[in-house]
Amino acid sequence: MTARLTPLLLAAALAGCGVGPHYKRPALDIPGTYTQPLPSAAAPVVDAAWWRNFGDPTLDRLVETARVLSPDVQAAAARIIEADQAARVAGSPLLPSITATGTQSWERIGANSGGTGTSGAGATSGLTTGAASGLGAGSSQYYEERSYQAQLGASYEVDFWGMNRDALRAAQATAKADRFDAQTVWLTTASSIATTYFQALGYRDRLAIAQSNLDSATGLLKAYQARLEYGTASALDVSQQEALVAGYRAQLPSFESDYRQEVIALSILVGMPPEHIVFTPVPLTSLKLPPVAAGIPADVLRRRPDVANAEWQLISENQTVRQDVAAFFPSLQLTTAGGLSSAALSMLTGPGTLFASLGSTLTQTIFDNGQKGGTLGQAKGRFKELTADYVKAVLQAMSDVETALAQVSFDATQEALEQDAVRKAQKSADIARAQLDAGTVDQTTVLNTETTLFGDQDTLAQVRISRFLALVSLYKALGGGWVLPEHAA
């Protein structure tokens, strides 16, 4: 037995040579810095709870609720479970498979005997005679024989070329990629909630501006109507002001509708019915505009979960290529079995007939009509595709940061300019109204200054919204505080 086992054990000991290409990260041309001016070096690094930096408890509550209830987040978590179990299945061939079987057989043999003797089969154990003793010629007799067997068997495919191990590593890499995908889903969900929430607040700000201007224009209309009675204003003056009031009033339902649409959109992201999304909106001017440190472009390789996801998909496919290369080589299957057989069930717990077997099978495909070659070629093509996807993910990450940095910078500049425009428009409107009261200007001049003021105020509100959205985009582009774990680097 030792002599028979020795070559098989030697083959098993040599298992794991491995064939096929080893993974190498694609060459990337990453610049040393971004083209856009960076925020102050004193700005804090993005942290995992970046949304708290805006100082809005309602936003904090919405994001934390989504962590538990969001359907997208729950689906991503379920995909991790699926991937882990797939890796478990892929790793099963690396260990022997053991089976236990128990069998029972029953045989009945009947014969017509021409005389009084007993056939040779009657001497076997388990013999039963169906006729009474002293049967004469032409009598019928039969024999029943029962046997029992218990067997324990094992089989193992020697992973000499590393095919099974590569299959396991491919599945494990896919599981890691799914974990990074889950982080990407969470980052996307949190940033979408922040974006939608700020847009909702922005529409409320624009609604408040429109309402304020409507109130001001309505007050001026009443003044014109009073002056018309005294003959100091014309019907045209009143009509023009009525048109302005009607225009302001017509804008209110649009802003209110846009606000409600954003609140409804929040319900899907958070994972709650729209009726449960209830909060008191606050002006965007009451929230913080936190500074953000962008770092350097090379940081995207360890701070963006989508980039990590793309690379680990690439790593998984590289292992698949190795697995398909190994499929061209012979496979060695070891089998062994042993057990106990007996003519009586009670004998299985006592003395019986022991048996054992040991075997090995070496298999090599001679002709498969190009199946293995096609499978390998398909895996290589997929690897090239995923390589391009990985490079694109890196370029997209750097582009996202550049775009967000530019938007943050330009919006800050534009807001300062719009604030100055609003101040000047307000001053012009105040002067026009004073001169109208003094009778030195006509009503058209006041209308023009009011229209300009309202336009500048609304534009300022839109720029302020854009600043918040740009900051959210920058947080997302920088990975939302996520960092690639050391063991996955």
3D structure, described in words:
With 489 residues, the protein is of the alpha+beta class. The protein has one domain: Outer membrane efflux proteins (OEP) (Up-down Bundle). It is 57% helix and 12% strand. Strands 1-2-3-4 form a four-stranded antiparallel beta sheet. Helix 7 (305-326) packs antiparallel against helix 8 and helix 8 packs antiparallel against helix 9.
Blueprint of the fold:
Elements: H1 2-13, H2 57-69, H3 71-91, E1 97-112, E2 140-158, H4 163-230, H5 235-270, H6 300-303, H7 305-326, E3 331-342, E4 353-363, H8 371-438, H9 443-477
Antiparallel strand pairs: 1-2, 2-3, 3-4
Helix pairs in contact: 2-4, 3-4, 4-5, 4-7, 4-9, 5-9, 7-8, 8-9
Brief summary:
The protein is built from nine helices and four strands; from the N terminus they run αααββααααββαα. The protein has helices spanning 2-13, 57-69, 71-91, 163-230, 235-270, 300-303, 305-326, 371-438, 443-477, and strands at 97-112, 140-158, 331-342, 353-363.
CATH topology: Outer membrane efflux proteins (OEP)
CATH class: Mainly Alpha
Order of helices and strands: HHHEEHHHHEEHH
Strand content: 5-15%
Helix residue percentage: 55-70%
Largest sheet, spatial ordering of strands: 1-2-3-4
- CATH architecture, by name, is Up-down Bundle
Number of helices: 9
Which value, in Å, is the CA radius of gyration?
Answer: 41 Å
- Termini separation comes to 48 Å
Number of domains: 1
- Report the mean per-residue pLDDT as an integer: 86
Name given to the CATH homologous superfamily: Outer membrane efflux proteins (OEP)
Number of strands: 4
